[in-house]
Write the structure tokens for this entry.
Amino acid sequence: MKKKLSIFLVVLLIAVTLAGCGGSSGRDDADKTATDSADGKKTVVIGAQTDLVTLDPGHMYEPYANMFAYAAYDNLYTVKSETLGEYEPSVATGYTLDDSKTQYTFTLRDDVVFASGNPLTSKDVVWSYNRVLNMPESNAHVNMKNVKKVEAPDDYTVVITLAEPEASFLNKITSNAYAIVDSEVVKEQGGSDTGGDTAKTYLDGTSAGSGPFIIKEWTPKERVVMERNPSYWGTPSEIDQIIVQEMTSVDSQITALKNGEIDIALSLNQETAKQLEGIENVTIKQGETALMTFLVMSRDTALSEKMANPKVQEAVRYALDYPAYLTMAGEGASIPLNIVQNGFVGALERDENFRDLDKAKALMQEAGYEDGFNIILTCANNNSEGLEWTTIAQKVKEDLAEIDIDVSIETLEATLVYEKMRNAEMAFYLMFWSPDYYDINNQFAFLPGLGENGTIYGNRAHWDVTADNQELVDLGSKIYVEDDANARAALSEDLQRAYEKDSPIATLLQHTKTIAYNSERLANCPYNDLCKIELHHLKLK
Amino acid sequence: MLQYILHEKNTMLKIGFIICLLWILIAIFASFISPFDPVKDQNMAMRFQPPGKDHFFGTDSLGRDVFSRVLYGSRLSLAAGMVTVIISLFVGIIIGGTAGYVGGWADEILMRLSEMIQSFPPLILAMVIAAALGPNIYNSVLAMSMIWWPNYARLTRSVVISIKESDYVTAARLMGAGHLRILFAEILPNCFGSLIVMATLDLGNAILVFSGLSFLGLGVQPPVAEWGAMVSDGVTTFNYWWISTFPGLAIFSVAIGANFIGDGLRDYLDPQYR
């Protein structure tokens, strides 16, 4: 019996120890090359949980893809360092726009060469754009839809003609769809600008661009290795090699950063970053994002007649306890009034004291549901910058209980939820939005519109254009082409105020990004939401 | 039996008995002893409070009292574990009894079926079934019962086969007893001892698997307080150790308590192990 008791005590001890250190799963075969490696190369290692599916800029669509596109390729215009949606010339030196506002004429630098040694000329730009234009199967294709034709009158001039005027075109041109590839090299590898392109396999393993780095190796779900481009036309980077190491667990990123195995941890949030506070040589940094989390309330009465009622949807907006969501998301987060994120033109913020339960209850009564009702809130097992959606959903449940809406939370696999969302099968759900390009024009996905010519969320929320919300569509089409910044801001404000009157969306949060880096090795760690870490601006100490 | 627990020098059994009794009492009286409501008392001003005098086990990401949630969590865990074991026991006795008593092709089919189920790792199979049925508490209990019954069926079958040819069973048959009477009144009482030991030992396992399913998001739906789900809450906010640790210790104590009782009962019912 004594023996059994002592075994019990040992088991107890082990269990308590395990409880103390569980969760921090071990790192597998990550190279310990954060410090300068033996061969004298200056290497920077980034720990991240990326969502890469391809490294071909003509096919990329994933939020982390632009980090690699920007390292290996150049665009005519590029995003301004550490801004949200501002741009500056890159390969182009400038542009002119004709009176019809559909024809852009870009002049190119004449000193740009590809990593292969070939000079970058207008024919490469034309070929690269035509390649994506003729790849309708590519996800990136959608950002090129408005381009009618691309021409090269001479070696250093490119003329782009749009199907219709678009004020956000220069902004779009900073995205990976418009990356310039080395047409000679890619053609040899099966590339085609007339359809039937087969160069993706080649570009998944290397790069054919003029950017500051060359992609040397990609092992999916493991790592991407990049080396400095020796013939880069701009200011060369001081870093010889960059390794982006896949680390799916936040804890392993934190441990690796503490141990000096990685230089940058990319998948933190404000709560997890607290583990790194006060540690010497580790700097925690906040970055602006355009990532929104919001509630969608479908107008489809077949899904839920009660939730589809516009009065109920307005009541939901009045019932939410906005400051609580801000607390959850942490410092730097904000609440956009509705569909225009902070940082975009004319953006308005939600008043923190917007919650008005009396008004919400009155709206419920007007709708005829003063006794409340039951509804399922579908929530993917996902998170927004580290904030678990189930946590948000539980707060929503609590808030809506105040106006007698009894919410049952249904957590499902994320892929399943996205499929249901695309098929418009959910009455009430939590969702996120990260724009494809950083301009208000991208936000028109939230305007009303059903059917093939409708909008993304018009369809997902079954919200059609009516006489009452025609104003939204009109304002949208005005903003779409307006290129005067002040006029655009004024129109944007009008749009947001009009949207406030009636919509199936309740915006909860605009998130902030938390990263941490080794400040003993790195002098800076510039972040912008489009390309995440700006690898070309990264500086060593 | 109670006398045995109280008077025999079996420390393990006593410890196990006390732990389980305590948890059963907590489960019954959770609403009286919890200082806070486990679901409704959200308080954003009190998020991530460490254990202290107001919140013995601290608070979680929504400012809820972890202590109250652990107390309430005992209801679900104990109930789910017990229901799983009872369903499996019931199904197992019927299937195992039939297989052993009828023999022949019925035995073959039923035993191959149980082997099929046992050839999968239990947690993986439970995950597959729970995910296919949709995540909620009833489905996870159903999924666990579906993987658990073969243990009881095999045990019952082996006892039935060894006894069905014995003299007293033949005597009962000669006296005109029907099949059901022979099976339930003459044969099965012989294996109740082993079945009860097995069931008690399994109770701990069932609670562990149930917590595992909830941890993976296949058990209860938030905001219901359940130990496995609470452990998983704390995984993303790892620096607030109390969020996972206390529900983890609760799972541990129940599982070990049930195991101690199982061991002790075996000593009592199966003297050869003593």
Remarks:
- Chain B has a mean pLDDT of 87.
- The radius of gyration of chain B is 22 Å.
